[in-house]
Amino acid sequence: MKYKVLLSLGSNKGNRKENLEKAIIQIQNLLGDVIAISSIYESPSWGYKDEAYLNNAICLVTDVAPIELMDALLNIENSLGRLRATNSSYEAREIDLDIILIEGLIIEHPKLEVPHPRMNLRRFVLKPLVDIAPDWIHEKEQISLSNLLLKCEDKLGIKFYGTVS
User: Fold this and answer.
1) Rg (CA), the chain
2) Which of 28, 57, 84, 149 is the most buried (most CB within 10 A)?
3) Element of type H or E holding 129
4) Are 154 and 121 a contacting pair, CB within 8 Å?
5) How many CB atoms lie within 10 A of CB 28?
6) Is the whole-model pTM more than 0.85?
7) Each residue's pLDDT tens digit, 138-152
């Protein structure tokens, strides 16, 4: 089975742009076809004070099932230097890879919740997604991503940073 997946990528530690690019290359090489890549945006850290984040989004077509995809993304994070904290607090990270939406699926599993439960609250997630999939309908809310962005109450500013090389 093929899955069409929207992923959010973020980095605020080390060479942030290079971290995003390396993650995209690994995703393309290991997991499927990256069919769209958003611009890169810079935003303040969310939930704590640290270096600003670079964020972007990609659309992936893969035959890797969702839970296995999440495991593979965690392995990519690890290979790029991400060590996950044992506590639930936010922290600086070389790379953060999140499955945001999977076309036509709602998943509630201990390892994975899709649609991502906090995506509606985060402009830095929604703006890159709208770049590549403005008309995608949120599987629970039944509203387009572009309309979710319009309704987003997140006041943290984001600004265009550049594109993936």
Assistant:
1) 15
2) 57
3) helix 123-132
4) yes
5) 14
6) yes
7) 999 999 999 999 999
Residues 6+ apart with CB under 8 A from 46: 53, 90, 122, 124, 156
How far apart, in whole angstroms, are the C-alpha atoms of residue 56 and residue 163?
Answer: 9
Domain count along the chain: 1
CATH, residue 86:
3.30.70.560
Give me the residues paired with residue 106 across strands: none
Residue range of the domain that includes 59: 3-162
Label residue 51 left, alpha or beta by phi (over 0 means left) and psi (-120 to 50 means alpha): beta
pLDDT in tens, 6-55: 999 999 999 999 999 999 999 999 999 999 999 999 998 866 667 899 99
